[in-house]
Every structure is written in structure tokens, then in C-alpha cells.
Amino acid sequence: MVAVRLDGVATAAAIKSELTERIVALKARGIFPGLGTLLVGEDPGSLSYVAGKHRDCAEVGMESIRVDLPAKASAGQIRAAIEALNIDPRVTGFIIQLPLPAGINENAMLELMDPAKDADGLHPANLGRLVLGVSGSLNSPLPCTPAGIVEMLHRHSIEIAGKHVVVVGRGLTVGRPLGLLLTRKGLDATVTLTHSRTTDLAAEVRRADIVVAAVGVPALIKAEWLKPEATVLDVGITRVVDPVTGRAKLVGDVDPDAAAVAGFLSPVPGGVGPMTRAMLIANVVDAAERVGYNA
Predict the structure, then answer these.
(1) Does the residue 186 lie in any domain?
(2) The pLDDT of residue 293
(3) Identified catalytic residue from 53, 117, 163, 227
(4) What's the domain range around 75?
(5) C-alpha span between 231 and 68 (Å, rounded)
(6) Looking at residue 229, which CATH number applies to its domain?
(7) Catalytic residue among 16, 56, 97, 118
(8) Is residue 147 domain-shared with residue 269, that is, in the same domain?
(9) Is 68 among the catalytic positions?
(10) Which of 118, 120, 209, 253 is labelled catalytic?
């Protein structure tokens, strides 16, 4: 048996096609969605990720506004850039690309954002709405990677309700909000959140119908840890340099041998990553539609 590949590239392309139609409809009403990005410094991974977001905007016909600051930018300069994006009418939603340089309080900067323009869904107000929103619809942005994971499962007709999900990693962008999202009424999963201090991680993973690995430790999740035909979503990404060729490649948290045990497997790269970017665009379009509805 070889696991069915959860193709994030193809799934994200379908989502972006739908978003393109929504953007055309918004523009016809005089509403122009726009994504802003704030990048501080020249971290290679961040540069690549931000460039990808702007390419996504061009692909769906949406404006993008890029603000780049040097690594030595002061906290005051970063605050000023955030305030400018908050009031820029071209910007429906924006992101502060993390990590910020050492010495800058990331949480304090995130709190300066207008929650209505929080394209990443990581503003404390929006995370709080997710905590409170056990049932019913949410009129606030969702964290992009958790939303992308749920969308990936839905679009591949993978049952969530009643399933036991083990999330490996307790980070702000994936682990913690994913548990909140999956346990909402209508999704109805049972979630175990594990981390580096979990006793016998292998035993926890073996209990899971769905495994989400999001720690950034290459090949942490072994094939023998998995329940046969479990659904496995590899989220962690590590850049590894081949000592022979000197070339860098991206590897995930799941050992490649897991493909012989899992029923469904999202790869790295090409799995959850494209879904995260698609859901970012979706958050911006959703925000523009809310603005249009309230106008």
C-alpha cells in the first residue's frame, strides 16, 4: 500500500480559481481587495515566502502592497509602518512577516494591527474569537495553516467528525489554534496536543486517526508510529543542505517511509504550504466582502 498523496498545489489552485471569481465580483461593485506585507530584514526564507504571496496576488488579480524595512529598523519605525497599513485604503488585509529581528517584541507588534485587517488570523482579538466561537459562523479571519489543513481534509473527503487527531507541536501558528478549530461544533474532532515534553510521543501518535506534524524536526514521525491507513499531514519544514552538493532542500517532520503505512499523506514541499498561502488570500477576500457588506 502507498498512501494517497494530498496534493496541496492542485488543491490550492482550485481555491485560487474560486477566489479569482469572487475578486471579479467585488471589483464589479467597486471594491478592490488588497494584501499588504511588512517584511523587516532579509531572512532568505521570509524573502521567498513574501515574494510567493505577491505572486499569488497577481495570479488571482488582487493588488498587493509591499513594505520592506531594513534589519536595523527601530521598533518605532516598525510601529509606524503598521499604523500606515492600518489606515491604507488599498489594504484589505496585511501580514507582519515573522520572525522579526532580535530585540523586537513580536507580540506587541501583532497587537498594533487592526484586527479586521489581520490576514494571518493571529491577532489576539481574532484568536480570542476562535476560542469563544465553539459553534456558529466566525466573522473573523482564521489562522491560515489550520484553516488550510481543514480545507485540505474537506476537499479530499476525509472525515473529521469523531476522529482522534494528534497534533505534534504547540506553536502559535499551527498547533494551538488547530486544536481550537478542529473541536468546534460541526468539525467535532477529539484533539490531543503533544509537544517536546510529551511522555512517549510514539504511543500518542499510534492512537491517531489523523496526525499533524508541526515541529520542524526532520523525520521525527516514524512509519512504525502510525496507525495503518492514518491520515498524515506534514507541516514542519526544515531547510537541509546536502554536504556533497551544497544544495539546500526542504524536508518535513514525517519520515518518507510513512508513505507505506499511511492512508493519506501530505508531502513537504507541495502539501500544506500552498494551502496556507491560499487561505491567506481567502482571508483578504473575506475581509473585502465584509467591508462591502457593511458599506
Answers:
(1) yes
(2) 61
(3) 53
(4) 30-114
(5) 39
(6) 3.40.50.720
(7) 97
(8) yes
(9) no
(10) 120
Strands of the chain (E only): list them. 4-5, 34-40, 63-69, 93-96, 164-168, 190-194, 210-213, 231-234, 238-241, 248-251, 264-266
Kindly tell me if the per-residue pLDDT of 222 is higher than 90.
yes
Known catalytic residue at 227:
no
Annotated catalytic, 53? yes
Q: How many CB atoms lie within 10 A of CB 142?
A: 26
Buried/exposed code over 161-187 (b: 16+ C-beta within 10 A; e: otherwise)? eebbbbbbbbbebbbbbbbbbbebeeb
Beta bridge partners of 251: 238
Q: Give the mean pLDDT of 25-37.
A: 97
Residue 136 — very low, low, confident or very high, per pLDDT cuts 50/70/90? Answer: confident
CA 266 distance to own-chain centroid:
14
Instruction: Report yes or no on 252 lying in a domain.
Output: yes
Count: domains in the chain: 2
Helix (H) or strand (E) holding 23: helix 8-28
Other beta carbons within 10 Å of 73:
17
Beta bridge partners of 25: none
